[in-house]
Design a protein that fits this description.
The model has no long low-confidence stretch (mean pLDDT 90). The longest helix is centred in the last third of the chain and has 22 residues. By secondary structure, the chain is an alpha/beta fold. The chain is built from 21 helices and 14 strands. The protein has a five-stranded parallel beta sheet with strand order 4-7-10-1-11. A three-stranded antiparallel beta sheet has the order 12-14-13, with helices on one face. It has a two-stranded antiparallel sheet with strand order 2-3. The chain has two domains: 240 residues, P-loop containing nucleotide triphosphate hydrolases (Rossmann fold, 3-Layer(aba) Sandwich); 211 residues, no CATH class.
Length: 474
């Protein structure tokens, strides 16, 4: 990422800044004014997240208009960090600071010993530099080994060795919070901070200052603090001290997407698909099943709901299913990459590390994941497919028909089956759509067969991604 260069027309001295039209504002005023303008224009707070338009974002807008420090509560993969990072877009493009200041001193009201002394010496000739809004955001992942020096600051032994006295304010090395002055400071997984470090944040959130040990220094900070936490850590385990909870003005609960369509939109926005020598076409029912697996997992009694089932699971599963279809296409030389139901078995590898089990050990994970996928396929089939040809297809199997499927078979094998079974061909074409390619027809045929099996109209002998569909009467 390149550092933005300030435009040449911006003032470079304190005197020129005074003579300009610039009016200093607190960071909360900046955010409120820019948010008001955005809302008045009918623009969203952020377009970086989906599914929060009627729930989380209105609460976040209210909190920002109120000037509150905010804590976002939610399980993993609920876009908490992404929302926080998007708040940078509510800051002004450029901010003037005393040049060389570690804490982004306001030239009109400096707070550090360095800036106070410089302004006193040079007056209107004090040099001014400009900071772009993208640089006014600091983020820290809380961990038990996070120290007070990391967040607040400490005496710098190098400065002391250079001749400064221990009690000289210039001997201080500031931490992330003072360096976030006139900006946004984000703390992820706040309850993971040691309690003694949490105490150090109390003044920042209430009195807006920091006190560094051994020094009678108080910095009147102007910083918006936004934190994230898992609800279990925040509310049940008592890992966050009560006075610190009380300092946050607003507490906002995030959630996973309520609708499958929203989850699919997020997949489209976030998934990074492999490069392919032929077109990649993902059928609607494969997208539905991939997103639905996460939804059924979020309701499963064998999955740990306190750990959550991240949207990243849907994204990783989608990428894996497409990659498995690409692997087949490179060997079969089909004309397009089209995932099938048999490719869904590859989701085991992308799912195992993203969910935690409540009632069994990991040795049963393959079976649990396979059951989740089957449930998702059955729900998709029963909700979206009105199979008029079902009895005819079943009857064809009753007259000795057998169909082999697998993630290693070329499209032409499926087309041969469709040619021999007109009822299945008609159903597959309706599911795939009027302009379906050979690969999409093959995928639709396998989806119909799997749907008939899961609704107990066909039998199936399966071995991993390969299957033999047959009559239930044999």
């Amino acid at each position: 990422m390149t550092t933005p260069i300030a435009p040449s027309y911006l003032p470079t001295t304190l005197g020129a800044l005074r003579a300009s039209s610039y009016e200093p504002k607190s960071v909360r005023e900046e955010i409120r004014i820019n948010l008001e303008a955005r809302l008045a224009a009918g623009e969203p707070l952020t377009s970086a997240v989906l599914g929060y338009e009627d729930s989380v974002l209105p609460q976040l807008e209210t909190a920002l208009l109120a000037g509150h420090d905010i804590i976002l509560l939610g399980e993993r993969g609920q876009a908490k960090t992404r929302m926080i990072r998007s708040l940078v877009g509510l800051l002004d493009d450029w901010l003037p600071i005393v040049e060389g200041s570690e804490v982004r001193d306001d030239p009109f009201a400096p707070i550090s010993a360095y800036a106070i002394e410089l302004v006193a010496q040079k007056g209107d000739d004090t040099p001014i530099s400009w900071v772009h809004r993208t640089l006014r955001f600091a983020e820290k992942l809380a961990s038990p080994d996070t120290s007070m020096a990391d967040l607040i600051g400490e005496v710098d032994p190098i400065k002391v060795a250079g001749g400064l006295f221990l009690d000289d304010p210039k001997a201080l090395s500031y931490g992330l919070v003072p360096k976030s002055n006139r900006g946004i400071f984000a703390m992820n997984e706040l309850p993971d901070l040691a309690e003694r470090i949490q105490v150090g944040l109390l003044n920042v959130l209430e009195e807006r200052d920091v006190q560094i040990r051994g020094h009678l220094v108080r910095l009147n900070l102007d910083v918006l603090v936004v934190a994230t936490a898992n609800p279990e850590d925040y509310t049940n385990r008592g890992r966050l001290i009560t006075p610190l909870k009380d300092r946050f003005g607003s507490q906002i609960r995030t959630h996973y997407p309520y609708e499958l369509t929203t989850e699919i939109e997020i997949i489209h926005m976030e998934a990074k698909l492999p490069t392919s020598p032929v077109p990649i076409k993902v059928p609607w029912f494969i997208e539905d099943v991939v997103a639905r697996v996460s939804h059924v997992a979020r309701k499963s009694h064998v999955i740990s709901q306190s750990s959550g089932v991240s949207v990243r699971l849907s994204i990783a599963n989608y990428e894996t299913v497409v990659a498995n279809a690409l692997r087949r296409t490179l060997r079969t030389h089909d004309t397009s990459v089209v995932p099938r139901v048999s490719d869904l078995s590859a989701m085991v590898q992308s799912t195992q590390g993203k969910i935690e089990f409540d009632t069994m050990d990991d040795s049963d994970s393959d079976q649990v994941i396979a059951a989740l996928v089957s449930l998702a396929v059955r729900q998709c089939f029963t909700e979206h497919v009105l199979l008029e040809e079902g009895p005819e297809i079943v009857e064809a199997f009753n007259t000795e028909a057998l169909v082999h499927t697998g993630d290693d078979l070329p499209d032409r094998d499926y087309l041969a089956v469709l040619a021999a079974m007109p009822a299945l061909d008609e159903a597959a074409r309706r599911v795939a759509g009027p302009d379906a390619t050979d690969g999409e027809l093959a995928s639709a045929a396998e989806f119909v067969l799997e749907g008939l099996y899961l609704t107990k109209r066909l039998a199936k002998d399966a071995a991993g991604p390969r299957a033999l569909y047959r009559s239930r009467n044999r």
